[in-house]
Each structure stands twice: as structure tokens, then as C-alpha cells.
Amino acid sequence: MIVDAHAHYYPEEYLRLIGRPELPPKESAPLKDTTIAGRLEMMDRQGVEIQVLSVSQAQPYLEKASDAAHASKVGNDLYLELCREHRSRFFSLAQMPLPHVNEAVLEIERVWDDKYNVGATIGCSIAGRHLDDPEFAPVYDELNRRNAVVLLHPTGADCVVDGDDYNFKWLVGAPFEDTIAALRLALSGTTERFPNIRFIVPHLGGALPFLLARILRMTGGRGEEGLRKMYYDTVNGSVDALKCAAEFWGVSRLLYGTDFPYESVSEYERRLTYLDEAGFSEKDVEQIKGERVSELLGLAKRLAS
Fold this sequence. Notes:
Layout: E1 3-8, H1 12-17, H2 36-46, E2 50-54, H3 65-85, E3 90-94, H4 101-111, E4 117-123, H5 137-145, E5 149-153, H6 168-171, H7 173-187, H8 190-193, E6 198-201, H9 208-219, H10 224-229, E7 231-233, H11 239-249, E8 254-255, H12 265-273, H13 282-297, H14 299-304
Parallel strand pairs: 1-2, 2-3, 3-4, 4-5, 5-6, 6-7, 7-8
Helix pairs in contact: 3-4, 4-5, 9-11
């Protein structure tokens, strides 16, 4: 089974509610206008059986709690509606109306037992606040209680990268958001206090594989256990980067992803095929392509029900 653990969906109704109808930007998302039928055709050509959908940077992080809660409810329901319409092809990671803690916990409770909801997603920062903010502890406690899989994702904010003329915010800022968010969760002890949460970090962990030796030296190894407990998706395309990530995290922590629609058709295809070029064993490649995330999310049981 091939499962894409990192793909996005942008319902127009939801985007209007959060005030971001321009998403996703065409210049960085060439497949933006692909219909669901077209998406399924692309998946079929690659042998991809399932996409796990999340909202990317379109988080419902609105100022008023009632607005955020309403947007989150509408967004999650639209995702689950698509999943039910195309049974067995899509599953959903729930978004949460943060930074509003009570509303977020209520939304987790509302959607969690739906067959097609397989976890949650959270921005690498939340309305200007870091993920290790102590006020978010009740949300982590609820996710921990439910043994949740939680995908982190850049928001295009709160990572100081100067140079709007070159789109540095997304060119390099996004992977640095991955880096900082994962480090904060590990260094703050959040991963230790909530050990049942399985975090997925996008883009091979951003700069973490390249900087990990330096980080461990300067922190005396603090946070290493937390980082090594996380999973890292393979959205990248460089065989050398993939080998570097596998060297540090171990092949057993890697999950196939595409970041659909943020690629051309050829890039979309490459994000699967380059997994075969890193010299991993056939068994390891099968695990990366879908068996591992299928087990994490309990997909076999959900597909059988």
C-alpha cells in the first residue's frame, strides 16, 4: 500500500471563512487548479492508494474564539465530506481553532471518532505563539490521551527570514519553521510530558539533519530523545538529503509525502520515485511508501469497517 502522508486540500468555503481566499498561491502551487478527479488520476498513475489531507498554512487561527471554532468545524466537516465521497482514497487530519484552548479540545472531541479522521495537524506556530507555550498544555493532554498522530506544518509566519523580494518566507523560511517547531517541542520537554503523541515533521525535518550534530553538542544532548521519537516525511526530492535524514533519524522514522499541490506534475512523480534511488532495502522502501504510516494511523482497520 502506498500512502501519501502529506497532502493538502483547500475548500473555497473554508478559505473564505478564514479570510484567505487566495490560497494556495499559484506561483508555488502549480497543481492548485487540479480537480479531485484529476488528483485521483495522478494518484492512480503513481499507484498511490491514499492521501492523508491537512490544511497546510490555512489554519483557523482567528482572533475571536467563536469565529475560529466555526471555521474549524466547517473546515473539518468539508474534509470529512470529501473522504466519505471517495471512500478509501482520502483520510483527514483535524485542524483545531487555536489559540483558543477550550474550543480546540471541544473540536477534537467532536471529530475524533469519525472513521475518516486519523489525527490532527497544527501550525509550526500559533498566532504568534510558540508550540511549547504552557497554555496549550490542555490541548496536548487531550491529544496525548487519544494517542494522536499530529502533523506539524509551516504557516509562513514567525520565522525571521528577511527578503520578501525573493520569497524567502517560503523558499527557506518554511523548513526553518519545521526546524524550530520540532526543536521547541523536544527541548521544552513537551515530547516527554505527552509521550503518546506521535509528531510528524515535514520536509525531512527542515535543517535538523544537517544541524543535529551541532545542536546535540551545544545542548549536551538535551532533546535528542524527543527528536528521535518523531517521524519525518520525505517531501524533498534530493537523494543526498534523503540519505542524510535516514542517517540521523533512521529509515524507520521516514514517511512518504508529496505536499500536493506544491509541485509540478514531474515533481509530484519524483517525490515517490526518488525513494527507490537511496539504496534502501526493498522492505524499507515499502515501509516508507506506506506501510509505516498505515500502521500509525490504523488505516487497515478503518478500511475494513
